[in-house]
Amino acid sequence: MSMKAFELVPAIERAKLIADKIKTQIECLDVCGKNLYIGTADCFVFHYCIEERNIGGRTTFYSEKQGQKYLGLKKAIVQIKAASALNRIMVLCDNTFTLLNMFDLEPVYSGAKIKGVNYFCLNENPANPNPFSIEICVALKKKQLQVFTILEDKIIHNKDLSIPEPATIIGVDEKHVCAALTTQYCIIEIDTGNIQDLFPFDTEYVNPVVKKVTKDEFLLSGPSALGMFVTSAGISQRPPMQWSDNLVSVSCVHPYIVAMNDEFITIHSILDQQQKQAIPFQGGVFMNDFDGKLFIASSREIYSLVPVAFEKQIQALLADKRVTEALELAENAHSTGMTKDKFMKMYRRIQQQAGFIEFTQQHFEEARDLFIKGQVDVREIICLYPKMMPTGSNFTRSSPALHEIPDITVLTKNNETLTAEYIYFLQSYLEEIRNTKLSIGLKQEIDVALLKLYAENNSPELIPLLISETSCDLADCVECLERYQRHHALALLHKHHSENDRALAIWSKLVNGELTDNSFPGFKFVIEFLANLNNHELVWKYIDWALEKDEELGVQILTERPVNEPPSERLRPDAVIDYLHRFPLAVINYLEYLVFQKKLEKEKYHTHLAVLYLDKVLNLLKNSSVRKEEIDMARSKLRHMLQISSLYRVQLILGKTKETDMHAECAILYGKLEEHDKALRILVHKLKDYGAAENYCLVNSQGREPAYRKRLFHILLSVYLDSSYERKDTLVAPAMSLLNSNVADFDTVKVLQLLPDSWSVSLLSQFLTRAMRKSMHTSRMTRVERMMARGENLSIKQECIELQQEPVIMTEDRNCAVCNRPYSEPTFIRYPNGVVTHVHCAKNKYICPVTGKLFRTQKSNPS
Fold first, then answer.
1. In which band, very low, low, confident or very high, does the pLDDT at 17 lie, cut at 50, 70 and 90?
2. 813 Cβ neighbours under 8 A, 6+ residues apart
3. Domain total for the chain?
4. Could you give the C-alpha distances from 603 to 153, 595, 606, 647, 699, in angstroms and in order?
5. What is the CATH number for 27?
6. Does a structural domain hold residue 188?
7. Residue at a domain's end among 308, 323, 354
8. Runs of H (alpha helix) within 104-234
9. How far is CA 699 from the centre of its chain?
10. CA 770, CA 773: separation in Å to the nearest integer?
11. Signal peptide location in the record (predicted)?
12. What is the CATH number of the domain that holds 858?
């Protein structure tokens, strides 16, 4: 499928060209600025002034003849080349290279010329450029190339290069010459003369062509009508190009290669080596590009191949749905001299158009990439889906339009599978760009579309969308969510818009079973919401409902309040407790929150909680059907409360427990009253829990002095050794265990006074041995501490003596070393280096305020 990359436009009318010479036939031409030079078969040089004009969007040329010159050789002019820097024309005629004046066409007065030349080529990229000279390479009839520097009136010979065969055509770039010899192509390095053979050709079938394409790269005509790209290093970095037979000439106008044979001009892309256009043209004898402008000549006429604007070429490709080619062409448009900003604007629009073309062909991955790279306005995509845009949107499609799609129903034609694919594409695309720069200013359109898609498909992503920072609008989304019965999502939407009462109304119906929604997380979710709600009126509106549903969960509305919530009269603890009297489990949980979490030290809260714990235990004990584990758990909570708190009314609780068999609780209460003997007798005699008795001593002596701890253990030992106890023999073993315990602490003398005379030394050997070791250790440690104290005392005395050796003389004339003011008080500060200051001027006793010297802490105390 072809495209229109160039238009063939007449440059010089035939009548003008043959007005003077009926038999004139064009052989070659050159264009330099507005000057056009023609070399003819009968040795004439014509000079025209040519001007390109654009009239009504069409390119035309205006030409005016400036002069002509007959060289008198009666041979065809093979090559002609203008050198504007020197105001000279280089002409090759009858194998002779000569110089003419650029304007009057007269030969240079020096008569400089080169004979025996087959071909010459200008080095447009010389290694040592000079604005007042040019460098050429000529192919001689003999096996030699020569390099010359051309001045205004002189030709300077620089170098000879030997070659194995005479060259028929050459191309030069910087330090390399690409030459078509008689039977093969080769690369010659100018500096060293090294020759690298490329590939052979047969002149019977191949018209040799050497055309410089880019820096260090040439295009050669090869066998089987192939165009071969070759670098100056002798390698090919592009695939070969297929063109027509009987090739006459080749030119390059990026990104195209233009080839001419005896019937057609063909345009090929250098990007993909494919033919893009063919223009019928018979009798072509010459073609070349001059600063981006292509001129073509037949024997009697001159034309210009005018490039069609890149935008038009690209739009033509897009119209044919040739997306890849259009994008490749667009990527190379910046090389046409377009500014970066203009290029990027044009290129993004082309990417957007290409994206919609891929979209219509269900090439969704390609469309996604092009939409993102082209930064398409996402509304251009959303508006293709019916009822997906917000109702209040005033969006209008891009003008000129990026596509001609009314909506996706035209593309899907009621095909459910295809419709699902288009919907999935929209969803995945919106998800991908939602938090990118493509969503800036368009968050509402994206979120509304996603919500509608999620609601319709019952997607699990609906809830996370509404929990996040969503821009969904109530007016558009409520009806959609109600239609698809997404009740929890609807409540979240109301919550997002601060309509908490409506949200709670929906959630309460979901909890009550009036509505159903599988995405609803349950009653606990509503409790957590109410617990964090700062609208206390709304909290109290729903707290009764919550407590009636589940007291234990409902009370969390009051106990899980935000830490930084300001105080409120309605949430004052006393008011809450009064309100909760109808809910016994809730009031216990709330009091636990006050006592254990908030750690409020109010007697009434602690007593109230202890009474409720006790009442619960008593009620469980009366019920014979209650499991033992439940009773044990309730009593454990009561004992924990009685043990850790010291704020409840002990006598009140004790009065209730003494009438029961709750001995462990009575022991704790007696301990709170400092009646340790009664407590320990309960533990030993009634409960026979000797470990609990020992633990009682440890717990009740925590934070007390050692003497108090010894007193408790002596009381316990006395209980064990009480001779009045009828079963005293059973307590010998626990008594010995207590004496030998590592945690018990005793006064050895008092223990020996308590022990019965009947106990043998062997029975007490372990206790006595440990007591002796402890006594000796204490004695030795006391002696060590005494000697250390004596040494410290001596050290301090030494420091004092050293400080008193030098007198501190204070006179009325002596001023503070810091503030330089006299002393008005009898106190002052003296540093070890002799600096004396006011007390208030001595900021740091370890650093001298004058010198900044740091003193060792052992000797730095100011006197």
1. low
2. none
3. 2
4. 120, 10, 5, 5, 22
5. 2.130.10.10
6. yes
7. 308
8. none
9. 57
10. 5
11. none
12. 3.30.40
Stretch 822-844: mean pLDDT: 89
Q: Cα separations (Å) of 654 from 170, 660, 685, 701?
A: 120, 10, 19, 21
Structure tokens at 360: 């219509």
| Whole-number Å distance between alpha carbons of 90 and 137 | 12
For residue range 283-324, list pLDDT tens digits in order.
899 999 998 889 999 988 899 999 887 788 888 888 888 888
Residue 604 in contact with residue 647, Cβ under 8 Å?
A: no
Give residues with Cβ within 8 angstroms of 187, minimum separation 6. 176, 177, 178, 179, 195, 196, 198, 230, 232, 233, 234
Helical packing angle, 732-739 and 706-720, nearest 10° = 160
Q: Which two tokens stand for residue 19?
A: 């007005």
What is the distance between the alpha carbons of residues 67 and 49, in angstroms, rounded to a whole number?
A: 10
d(CA 538, CA 535): 6
Q: Chain-wide mean pLDDT for the chain?
A: 89
Kindly give, in sequence order, each residue whose CB lies less than 8 Å from that of residue 384, ignoring residues fewer than 6 positions away: 405, 407, 408
Contact 105, 89 (CB under 8 A): yes
Average pLDDT over residues 390-399: 87
Q: What is the pLDDT of residues 62-107, one digit of tens each?
A: 999 899 999 988 899 999 999 998 999 999 999 999 999 999 999 9
**Average pLDDT, stretch 603-618?**
93
More confident call, 16 vs 378: 378
pLDDT digits (tens, 9 = 90+) for 534-580: 999 999 999 999 999 999 999 999 999 998 888 888 889 999 999 99
Specify if 437 maps to a domain: no
Cis peptide before 255, with omega less than 30 degrees from 0? yes
Q: Is 243 part of any domain?
A: yes
Angle at the Cα of 677 (from 672 to 682), degrees rounded to 5? 85
> What's the confidence (pLDDT) of residue 751?
85
Residue that finishes a domain, picked among 308, 328, 347? 308
Contacts of 379 (CB under 8 A, 6+ apart): 389, 393, 395, 442, 445
Q: Please write the tens of the pLDDT for every residue from 316-340.
A: 888 888 888 888 878 876 656 677 8
Q: Please name the helix (run of DSSP H) or strand (run of DSSP E) that holds residue 134, with its range, or none.
A: strand 134-140
Give the span between the Cα atoms of 398 and 782, in whole angstroms: 97
> Are 303 and 7 in contact, with CB atoms under 8 Å apart?
no
Is the pLDDT at 858 greater than 60, yes or no?
Answer: no
Q: Taking residues 374-384, what's their average pLDDT?
A: 93
CB 429 within 8 A of CB 391: no
Q: Among all chains, which residue has been given the structure tokens 């001609």?
A: 404
Residue 176 has pLDDT above 90, yes or no: yes
CB 412 within 8 A of CB 419: yes
Given pLDDT bands bounded at 50, 70 and 90, which one contains residue 254?
confident
Q: How much is the average pLDDT of 402-416?
A: 91
Residue 846 belongs to domain spanning: 807-863
Residue 125 near residue 132 (C-beta atoms within 8 A): no
